[in-house]
Amino acid sequence: MTTISTPCVKICVLDDQTGFCEGCGRTRSEVARWLRMSEWQRRRIMTGLPQRLAEIRARRAHVAGVEGA
């Protein structure tokens, strides 16, 4: 049996503004297509996930700062 690479951390909540999963950073369509993608395609997407997650955190920090002002 072949192991499939996945960034899933079982926190499946989509950020309304970015459309990225707050747990792994993937989009809804990427999650839906994940098992049909090649390993190369999955790894290419996973390379960009830290930046997506940072975008979610930065947006949250900005919103928290605006609401706290």
Features:
mainly alpha, 69 residues, DUF1289 domain-containing protein, single chain
Topology:
Layout: H1 28-33, H2 39-68
Protein name: DUF1289 domain-containing protein
Organism: Chelatococcus albus
InterPro entries: DUF1289
Structure description:
The chain has 69 residues and is mainly α. The protein contains two helices and no strands. The protein has helices at residues 28-33, 39-68. The model has no long low-confidence stretch (mean pLDDT 91). Pfam families: DUF1289. InterPro entries: DUF1289.
How much of the sequence lies in strands comes to under 5%
Order of helices and strands: HH
Give the integer mean of the pLDDT values: 91
Percent helix = 40-55%
The helix count comes to: 2
Please count the beta strands (DSSP E, at least 2 residues each): 0
**Rg, Å, rounded:** 14 Å
**Overall shape:** elongated
How many angstroms separate the termini?
Answer: 54 Å
Low-pLDDT regions: none
Q: What class, by secondary structure content? A: mainly alpha
Biggest sheet architecture: none
Pfam family, one: DUF1289
Protein name: DUF1289 domain-containing protein
Organism: Chelatococcus albus
InterPro entries: DUF1289 (IPR010710)
Structure at a glance:
The chain has helices spanning about 30-35, 40-69. The chain is mostly helical and about 70 residues long. It is elongated and about 55 Å long.
